What does this fold into?
Amino acid sequence: MTETPHVRTLVLDVPGWPGHRAGQHVDVRLTAEDGYQAERSYSLASAPADGPALTVERLDDGEVSPYLVDEVVPGDKFELRGPIGGYFVWDAEEAAQPLMLVAGGSGIVPLMAMLRHRAASGSKVPARLLYSSRSLGDVIYRAELEQLDVDVVHTLTREQPPGWTGYGRRVDVDLLREACFAPSDDPRVFVCGPTSFVEAVADGLVSLGHRPGRIRTERFGGA
Amino acid sequence: MGIVSRGFRGRGRSDDSDRLPPGQYRTEDFPVLSAGPTPHISLDEWTFTITGGADPVHWTWDELRALPSETLTKDIHCVTKWSKFDTEWEGVSVDTLLEAVEHDAAYAVAFCHGGYTTNMPVEDLTGGKAWIAFGYDGEPLDPEHGGPARLLVPHLYFWKSAKWVRGLSLHDDDEPGFWETNGYHNYGDPWREQRYWGD
It folds into this structure.
């Protein structure tokens, strides 16, 4: 399924899939005719109840992502390892505190798994999402996010459509103060995105008084 | 060989194979992987402690920097698949620090600002295999890469090279650390592709 011009979701049929937790990832291994292999990690986008699905963003200089976004057709096979990771995860059954999610670009993917898990499990825990994208056309899962019972705050950093009333700048401390649960609400915070984005968000949240141990991060890309 | 992925050609096949562990790809970037916010630690407050020997031993920043240091060039391998060749570090050998500690422990846990821990056998920290690194590429080590100082154990996956390290605790028994209790391999040898539990 095409999400944006650069992003596609692959719904996987994995025999013997053991189930996963929201926020976990898998390793994908591709093998060429001559035996050459390439492996990369991708976050699971789906709620645990829905089986495995990956949402992949095409990196122009990538080796695996262009294949997954542009080449793969239903029925193709590749190898999968996982699910992996036991820290950047959220379980609706154990959660009592509010859920605060902060996404930069395709960093939305593991956070969407948490929101889908929250919806599927009927959790009443308050949840907010602050989501930074380049433009409205780059927002992944835009229609579905509007259907969820979640406060979603968008900021569009490069290009805003005419009449846009949301935020139009990179996430800074003032924006975090306005859009996030306060430290006194004791939220569980998950931040995922490019390294510079995550550094800025996590530093900003700490400066606002959020306890570092309550902020879980996942970064991607070079520094 | 695994299942052939129809239409996948890949672009690798460089002659790095003797330096690139299985399942890794080469990058020129220096990606950042951390489980939480980056701690910012002032050098005035920084200390390094080794516990578990006859007595705890402490070093201040100035005391650490007064020890003989080395410049070394190493390939590093992250469990998230990237490898970076010829990274240049400056640091103090863990051998130098352990000379000040009377102990017969077989295992160590590195502990860090922010609460991170990682474990390894003492023999992987000795014999010129591990350093407390404070310089990278001729500059002070950036906070997001673990500065002021990180452990550097380049022959293991890079999560063992704990950022923001503030000490080592020595133990008779192995005590799995943060990632080691969260699904990642207890030892983490890239050449045997020991990424996860069960590898």
About this structure: The first helix of chain A runs from residue 65 to 71.
